Amino acid sequence: MKPLRVTAAALTAVLFAAGCSGTSNDDQAQANPAPTDGTLTVGLLGDIGQPPDPDIYYANNGLAIVLNTYEGLVQYEDNVDTVKIAPRLATTWEVSADKKVYTFHLREGVKFHDGTAFTSAAVKTSLQRRTDVKGGAAYMTAGVQSVDTTDPATAVVTLKEGNAAFLDYLASPFGPKMISPDALAKNKGSDNAQTYLTTHDIGSGPYELSAVQTGTKYSLTQFAGYWGTKSPFTKVELPVYNDSSALELAFDKGDVSAIVAALPSSDLKKYESSGAVDSYLLPTLQSALVTLNPSGTFFKTAEARLAFLQSLDREKLIPQVLGNRSEVATTLYAKGMIPGGADKQEINYKPEVLKAYAATLPAGSTMTIGYATGNPNAQQLATIVAAQMATLNIKATAQGYPTAQVFDWVNDPAKGPDAFFDGNNGPDGGNPYMWGHVFWDKSGGINYFGCDDPAVDADLDKAVLTGDNDLFVAAATKYAAAGCYLNFSYNKDWVVTQKWLTGVAESHNIGANELNFAKLGIKS
């Protein structure tokens, strides 16, 4: 995943699912035919929590709306397991040697949902609005000095200083999306169209936001004037389920076509062994994470924080809780983000370190281990670890917190728990800066407790100018020494679909836990 990122973010809502329904695979397959009315139904677990405004929305759950109603200049390439920039509304681009000037050649024949043509003027308007509304991802455009729109088919973006991550900013699922300048001007109001965009969109994507029933359902309708590929689905329904038992039951009955990143790992075996549905484990940049609160009593010192992190038996916990969608993380950044794994994570399982430290604590020492309400994987991890603390005479409690409260801790870290387990989260994009900035800089959005080292921030800010991997590694190493953070596991995106749905892998990219509905189809 970020302020507010349910990020980074920021957290994908997942709850304990119900057990098997008892329906046989053959019976279920017969009961779940493909729709004949052109409607695709994708279940959401928990409401999206924010309006689907691309410059405000900063959460995983609900990106399905943003990414199917809006488009950026570039994106990450679909259906590959590495970070690769691909065209979207820009067909080609050039970058100056000093990484200050980015020249984009724009796709012709693109129309916004209000019928106006996409030109370089929209690039200028879109980047400026991102800066003006000052949302969590405003840092992506804060460095823009000017946008030359002299040629309607070419946008020349000049930055205040070099930025090796700028293309990743634009490719990010949370990156700037192109909006209609005319629609923005018409509906700007007093808040730069933020109110309007709670129930409408002004993008160019394959679908339009056609209905909003907050907390109940969101509806998308296929945009007839879309320039690209169109699926057979003329309508997409996104019903909201408040617990995974109901979502899973709806899927098993065939009322839901697909579930994306919304079921707990405990359901993996059920669906992977079912011949009636398809189960996909797709590449992401995401991880399970552990963050510790230096503002609380228990983890005031780096000694205490590092001792706790070394007490976590990831080789045992990950298979037990997260299953085969996850593996032990060995690097400080996302998997493969630094070539050769030079950012090696040196936190290894040494329970004797915490045992020795615990022996020095006063009797009755307490600890609260938090997790996001509705995240069963994180809840199970927190519960297991809390029980382990009891063997050291530390009274630990596992406690759930609503997402809005989680993202408010940075304003007063003392209100937060001592530790927080994040079952699945990730960077804004594929550049190391987009990991380090959001997780380690206190202004980044997913540094929940504001644990900050100015030297780390300085290294990151310097590294992003040129893309210097040595500086990125230096920043990571310094931050790891503070003991506020552990990259717990590398995670994959788990998608389950009805057997008739095609194009799932082809519609997915490493940057987002969502699908491009325009690339989906029905098996003939």
Explain how this protein is built.
- Its main location: membrane.
- Belongs to the bacterial solute-binding protein 5 family.
- It comes from Paractinoplanes durhamensis.
- Pfam families: SBP_bac_5.
- The protein is α+β, with helices and mostly antiparallel strands.
- The chain folds into 3 domains: 25-63 and 193-283 and 493-522, D-Maltodextrin-Binding Protein, domain 2; 74-184, Alpha-Beta Complex (Dipeptide-binding Protein, domain 1); 287-491, Dipeptide-binding Protein, domain 3 (Roll).
- Helices cover 26% and strands 21% of the residues.
- The strands form 5 sheets. Strands 8-9-10-1-11-19-12 form a 7-stranded mixed beta sheet. Strands 14-18-13-17-15-16 form a 6-stranded mixed beta sheet.
- It is globular and about 70 Å long.
Number of domains: 3
In what range is the share of β-strand residues? 15-25%
CATH superfamily of the largest domain: Dipeptide-binding Protein, Domain 3
CATH class of the largest domain: Alpha Beta
What structural category arises from helix and sheet content? Answer: alpha+beta
Please, what is the average pLDDT? Answer: 92
**Spatial ordering of strands, largest sheet:** 8-9-10-1-11-19-12
Q: Roughly how much helix do the residues carry, as a percent range?
A: 25-40%
Protein name: Solute-binding protein family 5 domain-containing protein
Membrane topology: Lipid-anchor
InterPro entries: Peptide/Ni-bd, SBP_5, SBP_5_CS, SBP_5_dom
Keywords: Signal, Transport
Record keyword descriptors for this entry.
single chain; 524 residues; alpha+beta; D-Maltodextrin-Binding Protein, domain 2; Dipeptide-binding Protein, domain 1; Dipeptide-binding Protein, domain 3; 3 domains; seven-stranded mixed beta sheet; six-stranded mixed beta sheet; 15 helices; 21 strands; 26% helix; 21% strand; disordered N terminus
